[in-house]
Specification:
400 residues; alpha/beta; 4-stranded mixed beta sheet; 3-stranded parallel beta sheet; 14 helices; binds pyridoxal-5'-phosphate
Length: 400
Amino acid sequence: MDTRPKSTVPETAAASSAVPMLDVNRQNQQLRDQIGAAIDEVCQSGAFVHGPACQEFEAAMAAYCGTKHAVGCASGSDALLLALMALGVGPGDEVVLPSFTFFATAGAVWRLGAKPVFADILPDTFNLDPAEVERKISGSTKAIIPVHLFGQCCDMNRLGELAQANGIPLIEDAAQAIGAEFEGKRAGSLGKLGCFSFYPTKNLGGFGDGGIITTDDEEVADSLRVLRDHGQQPRYHHALVGINSRLDSLQAAVLSVKLSKLEEWTAGRQRHAAKYATEFADLKLAAQLVTPTVPVGYRSVWNQYTVRVRDGRRGEFQRYLAGRQIGSAVYYPIPLHMQKCFAELGAKRGSLPVSEQAAEEVLSLPIYAEMTVAEQDCVIRAVAEFFGAEAARDTKQLAA
Ligand SMILES: *Cc1c(COP(=O)(O)O)cnc(C)c1O
């Protein structure tokens, strides 16, 4: 039995570190009065489920993403589940998706009795490699799930062509990519359906769980609304079996207030990403540190700033940062094809080498909008010091 004490600090609580990985209280405090008033309004109305606050937020999200419809649900995981259900995915079907992603992407496929077929990623963006997807498509493929990882879209041209040529719908997992763009179009409007999460650590985070599904297809939107409500239509008449998955009015009200600030917060993340890029380039870091790239035509919203640490030095680097009370995180340490629960799929180590190498090398550094100049300089200085004395000499001019 594991007798080590478990951490009692919740993942999203304000941390007391010198530079926390994330501090959700900073942005929530900015809006304290507005959020309080919005919550109060819902409490006064008594409409806690599917109330006007939900419809307002759904309309605002559809407009933000540039889609005709947005259907709220209980979480990003449920958004994926409902999207697959709306397409009729079930036993005997295959769904192509990346192995290097958060568990929910594959979990939703598995729960419906369908088979997740893992495709490898591109080394520079960590996103699905279209050539790999093409190799993994079979006669049983019912959907493809491009995950826009860390806030940047997949190559939706190539994936869109593949989808069209094979008559297979794309379900975007945009949980980390609200506001991200590919050739001027927003995440959530690039496939048949788009799935979003409002988990507190996402770029638009609620006060608990929440999710939404975007689509231009009216028929799909209608079936999503039925499926999230036990499949009943009209009330107490069930032509199909759905689930109970609601976006609470309280969450919707909070999220509407926060959505009005999202572009400003995204600009903050982009500013920090640009500063990391310039400073790290100036440091002429050893080839041991690889910084993220944003290809032309992409707008990243930087849910994470994820570097690669080569030569097996990631653990050492992460401990070095921790010693300076600088937060960092490994998203994700085990690719999904290597997870125990998917062992019966028979994937071997070495079968998705790019995903496996990423899992060994990635490290995400703090990047939220409210990070101060002093905090970011603290991260940059630590990076400079760790990766070489020569670089460290150039960093004296950074703010103390
Ligand atoms: C967060 C996340 C999800 C799941 O969202 P929840 O709201 O936590 O259920 C799905 N996919 C990706 C890529 C995510 O980052």
